[in-house]
TrEMBL record:
Coiled coil: none annotated. SMART domains: IG (SM00409), IGv (SM00406). Gene3D superfamilies: Immunoglobulins. It comes from the Eukaryota. Residues 9-92 form the Ig-like domain. It holds the Pfam family V-set. This is LV1 protein. InterPro entries: Ig-like_dom, Ig-like_dom_sf, Ig-like_fold, Ig_sub, Ig_V-set, IgV_Light_Chain.
Length: 110
């Protein structure tokens, strides 16, 4: 089973200032997990919203301040000019190319 972890483990107050650039990295995505996705959950218990899929693709309706990248086993979610409404739990996931299953982790922003 893949061990997927995110950094930083905690967001500092400075990072959460409106307008700052927030970067969350997700490591441990082996070659078996070629595609990374990022998911936003604003309300506990609600379904997460996809903000990035296929490493760097943004669904319709997701603001352009959200961007994604992947290099080797590490994926990065960048929020350029973070807004108050971006306060949420963010999940990263890697898709298993053979089974279609996902592994992931989460990070709180806000």
């Amino acid at each position: 089973q893949a061990a997927v972890t995110q950094q930083p483990p905690e967001m500092s107050a400075k990072v959460r200032e409106t307008g700052d650039i927030v970067r969350i990295t997700c490591s441990g995505l082996s070659s078996s997990y070629p595609y990374a996705g990022w998911f936003q959950q604003k309300v506990p218990g609600s379904g997460p919203v996809t903000v990035i899929y296929n490493n760097n693709q943004r669904p319709s309706g997701i603001p352009s301040r959200f961007s994604g990248s992947k290099s080797g086993s590490t994926a990065t979610l960048t929020i350029t000019g973070v807004q108050a409404e971006d306060e949420a739990v963010y999940y990263c996931g890697g898709e298993d190319s053979s089974s279609g299953s996902w592994v992931g982790d989460k990070e709180t922003c806000g």
